[in-house]
Amino acid sequence: MREPARSDSDARRRYLGHLQRSLSCVSPSAVWCYGPSPRPGIFVTLSVPAVVELPRGGEALYLRATQEFHYGDHPEFPGERKVVTDAYAYTLSESADLTAELLAWHWQPEGGQGPHMHVGRAHPRLGELGRLHVPSGRVALEEVLLFAIDDLGVVPARPDAAEVLDETLERFRRYRSWG
What does the pLDDT look like over 105-124, one tens digit per residue? Predict the structure, then answer.
């Protein structure tokens, strides 16, 4: 169901609501917060706590997720506003201080990098893979959470996690500004 946003605050409320539904699939207590960025007109969203523990049987994984965005006119619906993502960083780690990073997905256009990922392991001949920018295409938070559940054994925080993540991912894909 479409949710029209007539103002920036409506667009933010809608956006954070969908991000929160996604995050609730892996953590019952973590929340999304937002605030201004040092860059004018840009806002930052981040999970609180800044590093979210993701249970997976005997050992936990840890997630840090941030996004930067601005507001814009909705190209499909005149008179409506939307959130436009400017950057993101999603990190999965084996340690709460993120020093044992497994994987990280980044998009930071100001740094001249397209969407990419980092592999937080060393290779016998190539050395530290974490310094490499492996091209990835755009990655949604929901894709990272589904990967954590399906492939890394993270225990979902709600019984309908797969359905919620599929729904919010489909909504993201339907309304995203770029592929």
Answer: 999 887 777 898 988 875 56
Determine the Cα–Cα distance for residues 54 and 56; give it in Å rounded to an integer: 7
What is the phi/psi pair of residue 174, to 5°? -65, -35
Helix or strand or coil: residue 93?
strand
**pLDDT tens column, 35-76:** 888 888 888 888 889 999 999 988 899 999 999 999 999 888
Q: Please list, in sequence order, all residues whose beta carbon lies within 8 angstroms of the beta carbon of residue 7, skipping any fewer than 6 positions away.
A: 81
Residue owning tokens 């605030």:
35
The two three-digit tokens of residue 136, written as one number: 């990835």
pTM beyond 0.85, yes or no: yes
Which two three-digit tokens encode residue 147? 């990967």
Query: In terms of DSSP H, where are the helices of 3-136?
Result: 8-23
